[in-house]
Amino acid sequence: MSEINLDLYYDVLLNLVMQAGKMINENISSRNKEIECKSSTTDFVTKTDKAVEKLLIDNISKQFPDHKFIAEESYSGEKILTDDPTWIIDPIDGTMNFVHSFPHSCVSIALFVNKIPEIGVIYNPTLEQLFTARRGRGAFLNGRPIRVSGKKELSEALIMMEVGGRDPEKRRVVDENQKILMPQIHGLRSLGSAALNMAMVACGAAEAYFDFALQIWDIAAGELIITEAGGVIMDPAGGELQRFSRRVLVASSKEMAENLIRNIVHFYPTSSTTY
């Protein structure tokens, strides 16, 4: 294993993310995107998803051949995160948005070393929002420091949650949580991208986000950005985040997270649960 050089990795990543963002912007307005369905008729992959992932993996591999990858479009199904430097990549988080030319999709990529997130980047090129974090160095939006709002009470909260999904039990839980939360909070919002939902909490634009049918590449970059912005991340039922459980809750404070946990109905997805 070569010497760990996080400064070099970060510089290389930012350059590649800008290239990936250019690819997304060049294609987002097209009404003739090449689309394939994966696990369901609402789970898409496009030619651009594949091209962005190839750009990232090929170039990182060329410079750092001993690094490993967990990437959405080339994922083999093996749920292992080792101590080796591992890049966790979602080439376009919010593919449904991208397909419809809705301007909330992003590149989301994190670097883990010894199973610890060291670098996290979320980039929405259409709105020119670049969220970045390095472990122990804070979180930033377009180079400016960001912090969570710090609010503690549901009565002060704007909550992010997704309303999509074809699984009937998950749909029931989503509907119940909307009914439970709406009388208690300022409002509910949904961007159609887990990474961007987490980024909104990190920059103080929302107080919490929770979801029950995600993958590790949806949350890997957001995990570091949230914690470096002073927020908390955990399982929606409480306790430590399990990165392969497909469940996540992020919040502006421990108290906000605990208030949500006490109120929401929970769902435990299986490996076959579609988003």
Automatic annotation (TrEMBL):
GO biological process terms held by the UniProt record: inositol metabolic process; phosphatidylinositol phosphate biosynthetic process; signal transduction
Positions bound to Mg(2+) 1: E72, I92, D218
The protein's Enzyme Commission number: 3.1.3.25
Record-linked Pfam families: Inositol_P (PF00459)
GO molecular function list: inositol monophosphate 1-phosphatase activity; metal ion binding
The reaction(s) this protein catalyses: a myo-inositol phosphate + H2O = myo-inositol + phosphate
Residues at which Mg(2+) 2 binds: D90, D93
Record-linked InterPro entries: IMPase, Inositol_monoP_metal-BS, Inositol_monoPase_Li-sen, Inositol_monophosphatase-like, Inositol_monophosphatase_CS
Highest rank taxon of the organism: Eukaryota
Pathway(s) served: Polyol metabolism; myo-inositol biosynthesis; myo-inositol from D-glucose 6-phosphate: step 2/2
Cofactor names: Mg(2+)
Keywords: Hydrolase, Magnesium, Metal-binding
Record-stated family: Belongs to the inositol monophosphatase superfamily.
Name of the protein described by the UniProt record: Inositol-1-monophosphatase
Organism: Phaedon cochleariae (Mustard beetle)
